[in-house]
From TrEMBL, chain A:
The keyword Cell membrane applies. Keywords: Cell inner membrane, Cell membrane, Cytochrome c-type biogenesis, Membrane, Transmembrane, Transmembrane helix, Transport. GO terms for biological process: cytochrome c biosynthetic process; cytochrome complex assembly; heme transport. It is found in: Cell inner membrane. Required for the export of heme to the periplasm for the biogenesis of c-type cytochromes. Belongs to the CcmD/CycX/HelD family. Its main location: membrane. InterPro entries: Haem_export_protD_CcmD, Heme_exporter_D. This is Heme exporter protein D. It is a single-pass membrane protein. The chain crosses the membrane at residues 20-38. It comes from Thauera phenolivorans. GO terms for cellular component: plasma membrane.
Automatic annotation (TrEMBL), chain B:
Coiled coil: none annotated. Keywords: Cell membrane, Cytochrome c-type biogenesis, Heme, Iron, Membrane, Metal-binding, Signal-anchor, Transmembrane, Transmembrane helix. InterPro entries: CcmE, CcmE-like_sf, NA-bd_OB-fold. GO terms for cellular component: plasma membrane. HAMAP family: CcmE. GO terms for molecular function: heme binding; metal ion binding. It is found in: Cell inner membrane; Cell membrane. Heme chaperone required for the biogenesis of c-type cytochromes. Transiently binds heme delivered by CcmC and transfers the heme to apo-cytochromes in a process facilitated by CcmF and CcmH. The keyword Cell membrane applies. PANTHER family: CYTOCHROME C-TYPE BIOGENESIS PROTEIN CCME HOMOLOG, MITOCHONDRIAL. It comes from the Bacteria. This is Cytochrome c-type biogenesis protein CcmE.
From TrEMBL, chain C:
It is found in: Cell inner membrane; Membrane. Keywords: Cell inner membrane, Cell membrane, Cytochrome c-type biogenesis, Membrane, Transmembrane, Transmembrane helix, Transport. One of its GO terms (cellular component) is plasma membrane. This is Heme exporter protein C. Belongs to the CcmC/CycZ/HelC family. GO terms for biological process: cytochrome complex assembly. Residues 29-189 form the Cytochrome c assembly protein domain. The keyword Plastid does not apply.
């Protein structure tokens, strides 16, 4: 074990701001990316369902958009 | 109108980024790829004398002298072939030590002394625990004694 | 099985309707692997690896900085590879892969610059210097952002794919420049501690922590990119039969609101 106490660990030999600033920002960005990426699929499905309803009605008044597929 | 202006902004942003990128590369190629000159290059007149430039090398052993005001420091930068005396007023980075790498920025004045406005420490790519560093030091000392 | 059959069975995974569910099944496993490796790497980095003789504790930034910098370069090369495959073979999925990689590459690139700044101040004495290593890494970030902006700005997906692929391929030249900058020019940034051509110049436990964190970054990237590629596939393939069927299923699950 490298540390005499937890407070010594958090102090990082006087470089706490630099070390924790690096790790903190990195894990914050990772968390943000995960949230955005996991939300994106649900949003895409919602958007596509709305799109399908829209074109289903626009083109032939039906809700079944698969008629539109080429 | 709205999606079009959004698209225009994105394209504009993309182009601006690319232009910035190219400008960056060009200016880097012009002056910054040579981040510092060695003392030998300075002696050979390859450095832009009369302008601000950087000199990099090792801080010569036993060369650091602190003036009475506690802020002005003088030392010498060497690449083992040539030596350049440097004077600097300001705080030094923690890793600035004799026998270690440093890069100084400033001007070479007529008195032959390099007046630095900025001092950076340059460390190597070796990472080791203090005990190992101590062992390496002992070994090199032993080798020196043997060769003498 | 003739060679052409085998070829076809491998290409099967290049079909979006096969890749979409496969990506969904694989991503959680890579995410779990990334989490385990990160915990192991942090434990090695903070509790097993010793203090550095010259830098003290601040060197522990290395366990993030180096894996992030490696990843930012690797991802760009993989992006360029998929762009090239897309241009040559004209496969739909390749361009989507290339575009799904970019945000994660940009993230790692920013992390490498950010942690480098926080590491540079206490060791070199400056957050930033315009040396060849730092400048070319900053250029990599601009290439990522330019790629993302361009592919999103162009409405027609086929043109966006092609324009993006060109940036990806041209920008790939920058990656070896970043990597070799510390050998080719005088830089403030030190040389590589770990390379294929020489023994690593680090204590074993320090090296172990760094490599485990690098593996964690790989696993994380694979997981995130697999997750990101799924909605992109749906949007691109919205006119197809299989996305139609999938949306039918989704809409009945939502209580038949469609």
């Amino acid at each position: 074990m490298q540390w005499e106490s937890w407070s010594a660990f958090w102090e990082m030999g006087g470089a706490a701001g630099f070390v924790w600033g690096s790790y903190g920002v990195t894990f914050l960005l990772v968390a943000l990316e995960l949230v955005l990426v996991l939300r994106r699929r649900k949003e895409a499905v919602r958007k596509l369902l709305r799109w399908r309803r829209a074109i289903g009605k626009d083109r032939n008044g039906r809700t079944d958009a698969r008629m539109e597929s080429q | 109108m709205k999606p079009r202006s959004k698209r225009l902004m994105l394209v504009g942003g993309g182009v601006a980024l690319l232009v910035a990128a190219i400008a960056l590369v060009l200016s880097a190629f012009q002056q910054n790829l040579v981040f510092f000159h060695t003392p030998t290059e300075v002696a050979e007149g390859k450095a832009p004398l009369g302008k601000t430039f950087r000199v990099g090398g090792m801080v010569e052993d036993g060369s650091i002298r602190r003036a009475g005001d506690g802020l002005t420091v003088s030392f010498a930068i060497t690449d083992t072939a040539k030596v350049i005396p440097v004077s600097y007023k300001g705080t030094l980075p923690d890793l600035f030590k004799e026998g270690k790498g440093a890069v100084v920025q400033g001007r070479l004045e007529a008195d032959g002394v390099f007046h630095a406005t900025e001092v950076l420490a340059k460390h190597d790519e070796n990472y080791m625990p203090p005990e190992a560093a101590h062992a390496v030091e002992q070994a090199s000392k032993a080798a020196e004694t043997l060769s003498q | 099985m003739t060679p052409s059959d085998r070829g076809r069975s491998l290409f099967r995974f290049a079909a979006p309707q096969v890749f979409y569910p496969l990506a969904g099944r694989l991503a959680p496993w890579f995410a779990a692997l990334a989490a385990v490796l990160t915990l192991a790497g942090l434990w090695l980095g903070f509790f097993v690896a010793p203090t550095d003789a010259t830098q003290g504790e601040v060197y522990r930034v290395i366990f993030i900085h180096v894996p992030a910098a490696w990843m930012s370069m690797f991802i760009y090369l993989i992006m360029a590879f998929w762009a090239a495959v897309g241009l040559v073979m004209n496969t739909r999925l390749s361009f989507i892969m290339s575009q799904a990689l970019a945000p994660t590459g940009a993230m790692f690139c920013f992390v490498a610059l950010w942690t480098g700044a926080l590491w540079g101040k206490p060791t070199w004495g400056a957050y930033w210097v315009w040396d060849a290593r730092l400048t070319s890494q900053l250029l990599l970030l601009f290439l990522y952002l330019g790629f993302i902006a361009l592919t999103r700005a162009i409405e027609d997906p086929r043109r966006a794919d092609r324009a993006g692929a060109i940036i990806a391929l041209v920008g790939a030249v920058n990656v070896p420049i970043i990597y070799f900058s510390v050998q080719w020019w005088n830089t403030l940034h030190q040389g590589a501690s770990v390379s294929l051509t020489k023994a690593p110049s680090m204590a074993t436990t320090m090296l172990a922590g760094m490599l485990v964190m690098a593996l964690a970054a790989w696993a994380y990237t694979i997981a995130v990119v697999l997750w990101r590629v799924r909605p992109m596939i749906l949007e691109r393939e919205r006119h197809t039969e299989w996305v139609g069927a999938l949306l039918d299923q989704e809409s009945t699950e939502r209580g038949g609101r469609a």
